[in-house]
From TrEMBL, chain A:
<protein>
    <submittedName>
        <fullName>ABC transporter permease subunit</fullName>
    </submittedName>
</protein>
<feature type="transmembrane region" description="Helical">
    <location>
        <begin position="12"/>
        <end position="33"/>
    </location>
</feature>
<dbReference type="Pfam" id="PF00528">
    <property type="entry name" value="BPD_transp_1"/>
</dbReference>
<dbReference type="GO" id="GO:0031460">
    <property type="term" value="P:glycine betaine transport"/>
</dbReference>
<dbReference type="GO" id="GO:0015226">
    <property type="term" value="F:carnitine transmembrane transporter activity"/>
</dbReference>
<feature type="transmembrane region" description="Helical">
    <location>
        <begin position="420"/>
        <end position="440"/>
    </location>
</feature>
<keyword id="KW-0472">Membrane</keyword>
<dbReference type="InterPro" id="IPR000515">
    <property type="entry name" value="MetI-like"/>
</dbReference>
<keyword id="KW-0812">Transmembrane</keyword>
UniProtKB/TrEMBL annotation, chain B:
<dbReference type="GO" id="GO:0043190">
    <property type="term" value="C:ATP-binding cassette (ABC) transporter complex"/>
</dbReference>
<feature type="domain" description="ABC-type glycine betaine transport system substrate-binding">
    <location>
        <begin position="45"/>
        <end position="311"/>
    </location>
</feature>
<dbReference type="GO" id="GO:0022857">
    <property type="term" value="F:transmembrane transporter activity"/>
</dbReference>
<keyword id="KW-0732">Signal</keyword>
<feature type="signal peptide">
    <location>
        <begin position="1"/>
        <end position="28"/>
    </location>
</feature>
<dbReference type="Pfam" id="PF04069">
    <property type="entry name" value="OpuAC"/>
</dbReference>
<protein>
    <submittedName>
        <fullName>Glycine/betaine ABC transporter substrate-binding protein</fullName>
    </submittedName>
</protein>
<dbReference type="InterPro" id="IPR007210">
    <property type="entry name" value="ABC_Gly_betaine_transp_sub-bd"/>
</dbReference>
Length: 659, 324
């Protein structure tokens, strides 16, 4: 039946009729079967699989001191990473070599950072860098910021040292690429909380574990984007090189790598952002820096102090992002114009900048005023008080409206949706999922969906997975509403872009732990609070991608429509949105992945289900196996949803092109 | 020039790493590098785990202050979750945990099986776990503090999360809860909702008291928030020895925990004066709540808070010091 209908469903209408019929049948069956075979599992209940997972960790603990893998391999990696972080800290953040201050003080570090920004980026980002670094001092968080920077830079350097070669390999070999892609998916969707405690079994308590945790999350973009860059080399260029008798190694060094350079720099940018986003979570295993300040403040619900430290993280992220982006643009320009004719000028410029930086470092090495940030210039206390006041005001005055909003969305959207997913028999949901995947995305996706459903049942967390899925889908829906509205607005106006972009950057990089308390005050410990946290984090990505898509619509099309007398509304709905379809699909799938990565944070604010299972597994020894299972369930949800959406998008794109 | 500077840290790191690789041919053993304390009469270094709650921080701050000022120790504080801290005993990275709530499973693993940890005696604090309501509710509905009346008020506690039943807000993930079993076995018309963090529980209670909205939730004492809003405990059927033996059938209140200290075996045998100090350390819930209040409400640093308390209570401190 499926095989017969497949060619017919090429036309959109009949396919959407069948989809509608499947959904209606689901609702009809739900009425009768509501509450049967839902496979619930209580908060403290375990399955035999969970117990076995938990015992796995004990094996590592028991064999650490006798197993040769540990003695000669893991322990050396640990010593190496510890030494690396400590030496960077000695350089910029911690008192070292018998001095009461680090080797380079605030003036030296700011000078060097500004010089790098100037030489690799441009004048504008150099000014931004200087201002950013000075602001760390002004916020009263110089040492903490430098600790975070030290850890981030070490993790990024090591991630690139491992990731770029692997990326090149994945770019050259299809087979390796196929093997490594699911592994990277796994690394990016597995919640950090799951592997944080086991990591300390491998690398013990200290910088090594924190660095390793950061690297697990930060390596994937480096590998992916490097591979992507290598693959992009035009075949014609390669053929030309081959015709000239170039060997494989030469082709890589002289042709592929230079052409991939810009994409690789984008990968470095993504790696830095990912590494920085781990600053707070790594603090749970004693990673030094700003994250500790945030977590300590959360213990006493001190919103002001948490915001102050969160602000420093946001500033660091924006500085690093803008500098690497500028560097990537510079690479692109250099590539397009060929070798610059003004090499001599460039050399003079480099030398002067370097000399200035060295002088500043020397000053900060020698004099106290340049080593320790002057304590008198304290902006931090104003920021703290301001954030406290704002949070208090919001919780007091807005709570009447926010409660209404929460109830409206929960009762109208979330509860019915959750009832349908979590209170249907598991086999009914599985059949519907497979059918929908088949209709919308094809045979392969439906197999993925089937395997995913079986895995969720096997993990013993079906019910929790469905509750989490309901929350995730509602959050993604809200993300897309925001994404399209703000994205269109931003894509059509450069001025709006300039105003919105820093706000979006802040939403993406501000650690969720900072705004946990205000949103809890506004919405209570509920699933809706978890949705808000997810939207704050995920909407920026979707907004940016939609805006990118709108901007990518050819000018000629827009001009033609305007000349034809289309109103603004018609222009958006008939021309710009349809033509930006690829960008919008990408925005939806990325939005979904970002929402999923907030499931654990959701567990901290009342979402329960998988997020809570992971958090409790991290905190309670006897629940560690269940936490691991919940982490795996999140990975399964992520990979299944991602594959279905990608296949559906490819199919929709394909059919719209053929029409 | 610029290029070499950019790669500076990485090169330095590589050289350091290579040096380490060459120098340690025998295979580095975990725990060898960190001598917990040298035990040669002096105090040396003491590694204190800092678990993430303010009451713990208060214990640790006072112990650290006395160890540094009176005994000349170097105290290294490490911010760790409970289970990770216990792991650290075996590797010498943690010498002491100074407020432990029960954790019989961890005691079994690290004291009885691995034999890396030993008891350091009680802290003198009594840990109470249970169900609480905000004070305004206890005033308005005086009989709510008896569990038998909870069903009568169940409607008050309905929320968007509780599916038509009353909501029991649970779930600081660090604490063991029997609440799902309790609700079932006591036949209560309530649904357990997992708040998921201490911050969520405190914010919920704070809002409930401020806006006079009903709330029933899991909480515990000593906790700094109790000095801001004195929550009122709901009495469940009284705890008797062994009534919590079968987790599925629990129908009684939580036991009162004697909070205690755990130290690593190595540290206990080192003869360090800091070990004597930690072993002797005891104080009352009021003492801890006071220091916790200095930290949480008065926003003092833990060091300043400890200094203030120690200067105000010289007699108590003197009793902790090693006799020699």
């Amino acid at each position: 039946m499926v095989a017969v209908s497949a060619p017919v469903t090429r036309r959109l209408p009949s396919r959407s009729y069948i989809t509608g019929a499947v959904l209606l049948a689901w609702i009809a069956l739900w009425v009768f079967l509501n509450g049967r075979d839902t496979l619930p599992l209580g908060g403290a209940q375990l399955t035999p699989l969970h117990t076995r997972f938990g015992e796995g960790a004990d094996v590592i603990d028991a064999n650490r001191d006798s197993n040769p893998v540990f003695l000669y391999f893991v322990n050396y990696i640990r010593l190496f990473i510890d030494a690396t972080v400590t030496s960077v800290q000695a350089l910029i953040s911690r008192p070292s070599f018998g001095r009461p201050v680090p080797l380079a003080g605030w003036l030296g570090v700011t000078g060097v950072a500004t010089a790098i920004a100037y030489l690799y980026g441009n004048r504008k980002v150099a000014v931004l860098t200087a201002a950013g670094f000075v602001s760390f001092g002004l916020l009263g968080l110089w040492e903490e910021s430098m600790d975070t920077l030290a850890l981030t830079l070490t993790a990024v350097a090591l991630s690139l040292a491992v990731g770029i070669p692997l990326g090149v390999w994945a770019g050259l070999s299809d087979r390796f690429n196929r093997i490594v892609t699911p592994v990277l998916d796994f690394m990016q969707t597995m919640p950090t909380f799951v592997y944080l405690a086991p990591l300390t079994l491998f690398f013990l308590i200290g910088p090594a574990s924190a660095t390793a945790a950061t690297m697990i999350y930060a390596i994937p973009p480096a590998i992916r984007l490097t591979a992507h860059g290598i693959r992009q080399t035009p075949p014609a260029t390669l053929e030309a090189a081959e015709a000239l008798g170039v060997t494989g190694g030469q082709a890589l060094r002289k042709v592929r790598l230079p052409l991939a350079k810009q994409t690789i720099v984008v990968g470095i940018n993504q790696t830095i952002m990912a590494a920085l986003s781990m600053a707070t979570i790594a603090a749970l295993i004693d990673a030094p820096g700003l994250g500790k300040t945030v977590l300590k403040a959360l213990q006493t619900l001190d919103v002001g102090t948490a915001f102050n430290a969160g602000l420093a993280i946001v500033i660091m992220a924006i500085v690093l992002d803008r500098v690497t982006s500028a560097a990537s643009r510079r690479v692109e320009i250099a590539h397009r114009t060929g070798r610059s004719g003004r090499r001599r000028l460039r050399r003079v410029e480099t030398a002067v900048t370097a000399v200035v930086a060295v002088v500043l470092v020397y000053l900060s090495y020698t004099y106290v005023w340049a080593a320790e940030f002057p304590a008198g210039a304290d902006v931090g206390s104003y920021v703290r008080r301001g954030a406290d006041a704002a949070s208090g005001w919001a919780q007091e005055t807005l709570v009447a409206y926010t409660n209404g909003l929460k109830n409206a969305i929960t009762y109208a959207l979330l509860n019915p949706f959750e009832a349908l997913l979590a209170h249907s028999p598991w086999w009914l949901v599985a059949v519907v999922a497979v059918a929908l995947a088949l209709l919308l995305a094809g045979v392969r996706a439906s197999i993925t969906a089937a395997v995913g459903c079986v895995l969720l049942v096997a993990l013993g967390l079906w019910h929790d997975s469905m509750v989490t899925l309901a929350t995730t889908l509602v959050a993604t829906l809200l993300v897309m509403v925001l994404g399209v509205v703000l994205g269109v607005w931003m894509g059509r106006s450069d001025r709006v872009d300039r105003i919105l972009r820093p706000v979006l950057d802040a939403g993406q990089t501000m650690p969720a732990f900072v705004y946990l308390v205000p949103i809890l005050g506004l919405f209570g410990a509920t699933r809706f609070t978890a949705i808000i946290a997810a939207v704050v984090f995920a909407a920026p990505v979707s907004v940016k991608l939609v805006a990118e898509g709108i901007r990518g619509v050819p000018h000629t099309a827009v001009e033609a429509a305007t000349a034809g007398g289309a109103s603004t509304w018609q222009l958006i709905s008939k021309v710009q949105l349809p033509m930006a379809r690829a960008g919008i699909t990408l925005a939806a799938s990325q939005g979904l992945i970002y929402v999923l990565s907030m499931v654990v944070v959701g567990g901290l604010v009342g979402a329960g289900a998988l997020g809570y299972d992971v958090v409790a597994g991290f905190s309670q020894y006897q629940l560690r196996g269940k936490g691991l299972a919940a982490g795996l369930a999140i990975v399964v949800l992520g990979i299944v949803l991602d594959r279905i959406m990608r296949a559906a998008a490819a199919r929709a794109g394909g059919s719209s092109a053929t029409r | 020039m610029a290029a070499t500077r950019k790669y500076g840290p990485r090169v330095l790191a590589l050289v350091t790493g290579a040096g380490l690789l060459l120098s340690g041919c025998g295979g580095a053993k975990v725990g060898e590098s960190q001598a917990a304390s040298d035990g040669k009469g002096g105090c040396g270094t003491v590694n204190l785990a800092i678990n993430p709650w303010v009451g713990y921080e208060a214990n640790a701050a006072v112990i650290a202050y006395v160890a540094e000022k009176n005994l000349g120790c170097t105290v290294v504080k490490k911010d760790l979750k409970e289970e990770v801290a216990w792991q650290g005993f075996g590797t010498g990275e943690v010498d002491a945990i100074v407020e432990n709530w029960g954790h019989d499973d961890l005691k079994k693993k690290y004291m009885d099986e691995q034999k890396t940890a030993v008891s350091g005696g009680v802290t003198g604090n009594k840990g109470v776990i249970g169900w609480f309501v905000p004070p305004w509710m206890a005033e308005k509905y005086p009989d709510i503090t008896d569990w038998k009346n909870l069903n009568k008020y169940a409607d008050l506690f309905k929320t968007s999360e509780s599916g038509g039943k009353g909501q029991l807000l649970d779930g600081d993930p660090s604490f063991v809860t029997n609440d799902e079993a309790l609700v079932k076995n006591l036949d209560l018309n309530f649904k357990v909702v997992y708040a998921g963090s201490e911050a969520a529980l405190i914010t919920a209670f704070r809002q409930a008291e401020k806006t006079k909205t009903p709330l029933l939730g899991y909480f515990y004492d000593p906790q700094w928030f109790m000095s801001e809003v004195k929550l009122v405990k709901v009495n469940l059927p009284e705890y008797t020895e062994g009534c919590d033996a079968d987790a599925e059938k629990i129908a009684c209140d939580y036991p009162v925990y004697d909070l205690d200290k755990i130290v690593s075996k190595k540290f206990a045998g080192s003869g360090s004066p800091a070990y004597q100090l930690i072993k002797n350390f005891t104080w009352t819930n009021d003492d801890q709540n006071l220091v916790a209040k200095y930290i949480s409400e008065d926003k003092m640093s833990p060091e300043d808070a400890a200094a203030k308390w120690v200067n105000d209570n010289p007699g108590k401190v003197k009793a902790w010091l090693p006799s020699s």
